[in-house]
Amino acid sequence: MDTISVLSKYLSDKSFDIVLTHSIEVSVLAIAVCGHLRLSASDTLFVQQAAMLHDIGVCRVKAPDLGLREGHPYIMHGILGREILEHEGLLQHALVCERHIGVGLTVEDIVNQSLPLPLRDMSPLTVAEEIVCFADLFYSKKTGQLTKRKSINRVRENLLHYGEEKSIIFDSWIQRFGTVI
User: Fold this and answer.
1) How far from 70 is each of 9, 18, 54, 73, CA to CA, in Å?
2) Is the CATH number 1.10.3210 carried by domain 3-180?
3) Model-level pTM?
4) Fewest Cβ atoms closer than 10 Å to its Cβ: which of 2, 79, 115, 165?
5) Inter-residue contact 109 to 115 (CB < 8 Å)
């Protein structure tokens, strides 16, 4: 599958350039984690594809920094990406899209933060989903920051804003995946 063609079908101009650069960075780190875990070639290919497509849903959100002026709130890009990838027939990739926000979103998170999301658990359930979440935490879509990897401490600090349990999940991932950082 040509993930760049899929992205270009939904994104253009500035948004395409930013999402592509971000997704490449996330993909490179995700592939390194796959190597550390000694995942099979087919599992690694899936992770690489999912990492490239994980932010496709931003095409339907309001994100002026990405050149997107109309649409849904940014927090919805995971579920919107799931819809897009399901439409494309990429059902497993679609689940990665939905479950990649932070270290995952629980129903409790959605209720406590009054998020405009369906009331269902959107936490990663597979190793591939965890890897994409993990790798995504280290990269921003902010202009000038796209290729700059955040430090472990910076990621942890960001997650602590959402509760200590988010940091605990991240720390468990560092234990499993962190030697590639």
Assistant:
1) 18, 17, 20, 9
2) yes
3) 0.96
4) 2
5) yes
Tens digits of per-residue pLDDT, 79-113? 999 999 999 999 999 999 999 999 999 999 999 99
d(CA 112, CA 33): 32
Q: Is 112 helix (H, G, I), strand (E, B) or coil?
A: helix
How is residue 114 written in tokens? 């009054």
Contact call for residues 172 and 103 (beta carbons, < 8 A): no
Q: What's the burial of 48, exposed, middle or buried (CB within 10 Å: 0-12/13-18/19+)? A: buried
Nearest-angstrom CA–CA distance, 165 and 42:
32
Please report, for the chain, the start and end positions of each structural domain, with discontinuous segments joined by +: 3-180
In terms of residues, how long is the chain? 181
Residue with token string 């936490």: 123
**138, 145 in Cβ contact below 8 A?**
no
Q: What is the distance between the alpha carbons of residues 22 and 144, in angstroms, rounded to a whole number?
A: 11
- In a 3-state reduction of DSSP, which class is residue 122? strand
What is the Cα–Cα distance from 98 to 149, expressed in whole angstroms?
A: 23
Question: Helix (H, G, I), strand (E, B), or coil: what is residue 11?
Answer: coil
Report the C-alpha gap between 28 and 53 in whole angstroms.
13
Cβ atoms < 10 Å from Cβ of 15 = 21
Indicate the residue type of 157. E
Determine the straight-line distance between the first and last CA of the chain, rounded to whole angstroms: 28
